[in-house]
Amino acid sequence: MKKLIKLLANLTLCLILPLTLIVQSGCAKNDENVIYVCSSSVPHAEVLNGIVKKELAAKGYELRVSVLDWTLQNDAVANKDYDANYFQHVPYLETYAGKTELFATCKVHYEPLGIYYGKTTVGTDLKSGTTFEICDDESNAIRAFALLENKGVISREAEKENFPITESGDKLNFSETSKIWTSKDGAIKVTLVAEELLVSLINDYDFALLPCNTALTGKITSERMVAKEDDPAQVAGKANVIAARKDDYENNEKYKAKIDALTDVMLSKAVSDYFKEKYNGVIICDDSTQIDLRNSI
What's the first-to-final CA gap in the chain, in angstroms? Predict the structure, then answer.
């Protein structure tokens, strides 16, 4: 009986060991000429697969892209499942509290909230509009009201306590459940609409304020755009970045070479041209957003 048990144990070990080696070799991502990047879908993965992959191939690297939920991407890079990610801006990256420090190698693009013609004809003065639709989540609603203020449609001075954003600028100054904000004189009405309904209802309002991805997926082109977020500090401050592992970048020459190659391509004219051609000017990618951050670490 003891001999039988020993024989079975040895046989089990012989079967497990090769499988273990196969799994380990399959999971390892130490390929010197392969760069693994996780990203959001639009526009990030589209850009990586559409132009960056080609440009990196010319440098001798193969780019492999995976679309992941944004809540998983920093941990995925920190855990070395991927070399870098592409989905966030610096303020969000700075909130990452993982044990492995990540850093932004470069800024690439900014996705502005835009104002688009609704039922009004192209060329109509924005300030003549009386009805506006905006996204109903608080973050985008605050951006929309701030943009309307910036373009002179509404005024904190004129509205005083009725102004739709708090003094601190981080909260709405009225109940979201009402879904409608009206100016003190009653001339302007802003309706908060669920994101998935914004495009289908665009012709019910004089103007629509759409998040960038909403405009893209809804095929609302720049020809219908009246204005967009264009404050230089905001554009540069919240441009989306490439994030990588700081310690490996400083101490692993092969990893550094990969990240440098990826960063150089993301800062190239080829990438900015791709953005312009594919997204019809809806997304900003130019000298104001393509910023090298490697010297800051």
Answer: 64
Q: CA–CA separation, 81 vs 61, rounded Å?
A: 18
Residue 143 in any domain: the answer is yes
Which residues are 37's β-sheet partners? 65, 84
Residue in 49, 40, 47, 36 with CA at minimum distance from that of residue 81: 36
Angle at 150 between CA 181 and CA 216, to 5 degrees: 80
The span from the CA of 50 to the CA of 48, in Å, is: 6
Q: Are residues 209 and 267 in the same domain?
A: no
DSSP-H helix ranges across the chain: 2-27, 46-47, 53-57, 73-78, 90-93, 138-150, 156-159, 212-217, 232-237, 246-251, 253-266, 269-279
The alpha carbon of residue 227 and the mean position of all alpha carbons in its chain are separated, in whole angstroms, by 20
pLDDT digits (tens, 9 = 90+) for 184-228: 999 999 999 999 999 999 999 999 999 998 998 899 988 899 999
- Is 281 part of a structural domain of the chain? yes
Same-domain status, 122 and 162: yes
Q: Looking at the structure, do residues 127 and 171 belong to the same domain, yes or no? A: yes
pLDDT tens string 235-248: 999 999 999 999 99
Domain residues for the domain of 164 are 114-229
Residue 22, in any domain of the structure: no
**CA–CA distance, 226 with 147 (Å, rounded to integer):** 12
Distance CA 163, CA 157 (A): 8
CA dihedral 54, 268, 111, 258 (to 10 degrees): 60
No. of H helices and E strands in the chain? 12, 12
Number of domains into which the chain is organized: 2
Q: Tell me, yes or no, whether 215 lies in a domain.
A: yes
Same domain, 246 and 224: no
pTM of the predicted protein model: 0.76
